[in-house]
Structures are given as C-alpha cells and as structure tokens.
C-alpha cells in the first residue's frame, strides 16, 4: 500500500471521527416488558425494544419513528440463524445507540427534526412486523409475533406522549421501509384525529419481478415469509378486503405484501 493511500485512509478516519464526535448522540435502550404478557416478543422470546430521544421545545408533540431494516426470514433455518443476533433478540441489541443523521438532536445536521421525539425501533421478528403465530415449537423456540411487537411498541410510545402527537412520521429502511408502508394506516389510526401523519419508505419499494434466470424468486420468497409468520391476517385490510375469500391465503402475499399495490390504497 502506497504512502498516498495510507494518508487517504488516515484522513478519512479522522474526518469521520470528528463528524461522529460532533454529531453523535448516544441513546439508552428501552425494553417493552409489558408486551411479553401479551405475547409481543422477538424470535427468541425476548421483549421488544427501542431507543427514544425525547422531543423538546416546538417539537415536543412531534414524533419521528424509524423502523430498523434487516431483511426477512422465510423458513425455520433462516429464522434460527437470526434468533441469537440483534435481528432476532433484544438481548443482542446495542444498549446505547448512536443517533445521527435524521435522528440527530443538532439543528446543523438535522434542521427539520432535531427537536422532535426521535425513535429507532429494533427489528427482531423477521417479518416486517406482520407475523402472529400463537403456537411455539418447543424444539426451535421460535416466536413469530411481529405484529404484536409493533403494537406493543406503539402502545408504549403512546403512553409516553405520542397520544398527544400533532405531527408524526413512520419511516424505515429496506425491510423497515416496507414496514412503514404495511403499517401506515394502522399507525395513523392510533394517533389523534387532527394529527398530521406521513409515512416514509427508504429503499423499501420491492417489486414482484422475475430474477435474471426468469424464476419468480421474490414471489416465492415473500409467500414463504407470509406463510411461516402467519402474516396474511395482519396485512392492510384496505387491500385484503378486496380479495375474494378463497384467494386470500393463496395470493394475499403477492397483492398485499408488496408496495406497488399498497401505495395507491394507503389512506
């Protein structure tokens, strides 16, 4: 490695360190212990969790909720591989999370939302918060309860002031971005009638297209996700209510799990 390359790496590292120290804010984790009794748990049975930095000043009644991304698990094997990571257990989540960018509390870095209530919701269910299967296999001890996790977290936030929200944004990236679409209407329904509510999906618009070999990979993949997690009953009613009863199980995952259908139906 040349001296020039080494110097570039050092410069980049120092620059990032300065930016991080200037902008970085560490926020403590909150475990939603009350959700456990309701069956709202991560894949491993641990309680849901999130990080919340309280709003202040003119932003005290404004809320920015960011749903963590991290793909999905579509079979027992892939869910087991997530079970003992932060994507399957709140025990493995970072206790003190750095808030920066859209979650920063500094106006020079985040002029629009710096004084809002900013929340990062941990993603530990593998279904974009749509699953709900009561039975738990004692061998794998996998819990498919994503929809319950979403509701438990929102109820906890409502009790901490979100019930008085005047402005609210449900956002997320990738699988979290899909979450923001799937739960947009249900999120709005939890808030006061006069609240201004928006949903923001960052890289969460997944299309039902064949892969390079011509196989319907995404269709089969999401069908498995919905089937394994029991998600069909938790997909947006504005979509599922339009399906014929005998088709719900077979095609709900195609029509009501992917964004291209939901965008024009979301209220």
From TrEMBL:
Principal subcellular localisation of the protein: secreted
Annotated localization: Secreted, Cell wall
An individual GO BP term: cell wall organization
Protein name per Swiss-Prot or TrEMBL: Pectin acetylesterase
Family statement drawn from the similarity comment of this UniProt entry: Belongs to the pectinacetylesterase family.
InterPro entries recorded: PAE/NOTUM (IPR004963)
PANTHER family, per database record: NOTUM-RELATED, PECTIN ACETYLESTERASE 8
Function, in words: Hydrolyzes acetyl esters in homogalacturonan regions of pectin. In type I primary cell wall, galacturonic acid residues of pectin can be acetylated at the O-2 and O-3 positions. Decreasing the degree of acetylation of pectin gels in vitro alters their physical properties.
GO molecular function, one term: hydrolase activity
Keywords in alphabetical order: Cell wall, Cell wall biogenesis/degradation, Hydrolase, Secreted
EC number: 3.1.1.-
Source organism (scientific name): Solanum tuberosum (Potato)
Domain of life: Eukaryota
Top-tier EC class: hydrolase
């Amino acid at each position: 490695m040349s001296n020039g390359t080494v110097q570039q790496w050092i410069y980049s590292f120092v620059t990032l360190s300065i930016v991080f120290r200037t902008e970085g804010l560490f926020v403590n984790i909150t475990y939603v212990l009350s959700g456990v009794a309701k069956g709202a748990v991560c894949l491993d049975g641990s309680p849901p969790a999130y990080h919340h930095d309280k709003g202040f000043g003119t932003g005290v009644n404004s809320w920015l909720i960011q749903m963590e991304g991290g793909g999905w698990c579509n079979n027992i094997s892939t869910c087991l591989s997530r079970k003992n990571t932060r994507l399957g257990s709140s025990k493995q989540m970072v206790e003190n999370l750095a808030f920066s960018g859209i979650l920063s509390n500094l106006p020079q870095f985040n002029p629009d939302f710096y004084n809002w209530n900013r929340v990062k919701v941990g993603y530990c269910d593998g279904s974009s918060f749509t699953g709900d299967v009561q039975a738990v296999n004692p061998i794998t001890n996998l819990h498919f309860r994503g929809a319950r996790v979403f509701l438990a977290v929102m109820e906890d936030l409502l009790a901490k002031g979100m019930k008085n929200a005047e402005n609210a944004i449900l956002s997320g990236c990738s699988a979290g971005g899909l979450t923001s679409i799937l739960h947009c209407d249900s999120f709005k329904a939890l808030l006061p009638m006069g609240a201004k509510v928006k949903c923001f999906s960052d890289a969460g618009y997944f299309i039902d297209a064949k892969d390079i070999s011509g196989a319907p990979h995404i269709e089969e993949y999401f069908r498995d996700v919905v089937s394994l997690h029991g998600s069909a009953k938790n997909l947006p009613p504005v979509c599922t209510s339009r399906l014929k009863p005998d088709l719900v199980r077979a095609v709900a995952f195609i029509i009501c799990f992917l964004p291209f259908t939901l965008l024009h139906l979301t209220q």
